[in-house]
Write a structure and sequence with these properties.
Helix content: over 70%
Number of domains: 1
Number of strands: 2
Structural class: mainly alpha
Strand content: under 5%
Length: 411
């Protein structure tokens, strides 16, 4: 079948809407635009998005609005459920603003899961558009920091946005879309200088290439994507080599810590940050009785209060529940929530993903395990939490023959 590489007028409008929505909700600059008195007000961003849709009545916004309405009961229950832990944390710690910030990010993760699980089965192309626009804004923001000399040793970003885009493009066998998404995944993971981002990118990209599918078009799509990755690796080697040589902190943060981790597995010593993360698992085991019930949302670091937690405080003055998503949900929500929730998601993921191949499923499960064990920021920072929730939604959503995806000749 002949494949057209043009887009229709309605799709062009949807891309414009996706660019606007992702800029307002998910771009790094949203924290500057909607900053009032030193605090980010996500509510203002949400109201701006609603106003945009009311004025322009775009199809993309209409699809997400329909999903919100269709899932209003589930969303209301989730909001009430999470609000319970907000109240517990506020009463226990007395930090209402911190508790509300964690409530907001937790709710946005659940919204990403529930809403996008519905949209994935109807219009996955809309999620692809939002995800790619989000990735493009993050890439341009990094380039701005780099060109202006403001680049730090780390660059946290919503990596799961292009990761979801790559998986959607693979399912829909869209060659150009897959290549663009893979480039975004590789770029954002590389410039983050986070080891966990590198692992997530590796697992997701390989999962896309080894997805169980049939057809000559699928084979050619993956060959082109593989060739694009090889070209990118060769093209970018000199750039990153120069970058490491000019900025020692970047080398220490990424390559240096990676070497330390490998030496640890070979019988050496772990770095201070790795030792701290390892100690969290010991804490969750040794103090399991104290973690059965929730501590509530709010304080998350031992330095915020001398009376934060006598057990958690004993780990290190640098302890932070956001260092590990498993630690975050276990500490703030208790084992009563974290164990059933994790088990349910793993069960749903197995039932939904096994048809795509066991190897691909294990790779995606590994990509999920990285933030679960080592990077709670993907779920505790609002604009990143939505995309991690969307990734979880993809894991829990069975492959479905979508009329639009199967019959559209668009890229």
């Amino acid at each position: 079948m002949h494949r057209s590489y043009s887009i229709s007028k309605s799709e062009f409008k949807s891309w414009l809407a996706a660019a606007a929505y992702s800029f307002i909700l998910f771009s790094p600059t949203t924290y500057t635009i909607f900053n009032v008195g030193g605090r980010y007000f996500f509510e203002l961003a949400a109201l701006t998005v609603i106003a945009f849709h009311i004025i322009f009545r775009d199809n993309l916004g209409r699809e997400f609005a329909r999903s919100l309405i269709s899932n209003r009961v589930s969303l209301s229950f989730a909001a009430f459920f999470i609000a319970t832990f907000f109240v517990i944390g506020s009463l226990r710690h007395g930090s209402i603003l911190n508790a509300y910030a964690q409530f907001r990010s937790s709710l946005f993760l659940v919204v990403g899961f529930i809403v996008c699980r519905h949209v994935l089965q109807r219009r996955p192309d809309y999620i692809y558009m939002l995800a790619m626009c989000t990735a493009i804004y993050s890439a341009f923001y990094w380039l701005f920091l780099y060109s202006s000399g403001q680049l730090g040793s780390k660059f946290a970003n919503p990596l799961f946005a292009p990761a979801v885009a790559a998986l959607i493009a693979t399912d829909r066998t869209k060659t150009l879309q897959l290549v663009c998404a893979v480039i975004a995944v590789l770029f954002l993971s590389a410039v983050s200088f986070y080891r966990q981002y590198w692992l997530v990118a590796l697992f997701v990209v390989v999962a896309c290439l080894f997805r169980r599918q049939r057809g000559n078009q699928i084979i050619s799509t993956k060959l082109i994507a593989t060739s694009a990755m090889a070209f990118i690796a060769l093209f970018s080697y000199g750039f990153f080599n120069t970058l490491f040589n000019s900025n020692e902190s970047l080398y220490i943060q990424s390559i240096g810590k990676t070497v330390d981790a490998l030496n640890y597995f070979d019988g050496g010593y772990a770095s201070d940050s790795d030792s701290l993360r390892i100690s969290y698992f010991g804490y969750m085991y040794d103090q399991s009785f104290n973690l059965i019930f929730p501590h509530g949302l709010g304080l998350g670091t031992s330095v915020e209060s001398e009376n934060f937690d006598p057990w958690f405080n004993g780990i290190s003055s640098a302890s932070n529940t956001a260092d590990s998503l498993l630690l975050f949900i276990t500490y703030h929500y208790g084992y009563l929530v974290s164990v059933p929730a994790t088990f349910w998601l793993m069960l749903r993921a197995y039932k939904s993903q096994h048809s795509r191949g066991v190897f691909s499923f294990l790779l995606l499960l590994s990509a999920f395990a990285i933030p679960l064990l080592f990077d709670g920021g993907q779920a505790t920072v609002t604009y990143r939490a939505f995309w991690f929730g969307t990734f979880c939604a993809y894991l829990a959503t069975p492959e479905k023959k979508n009329h639009y995806a199967e019959n559209s000749g668009q890229v």
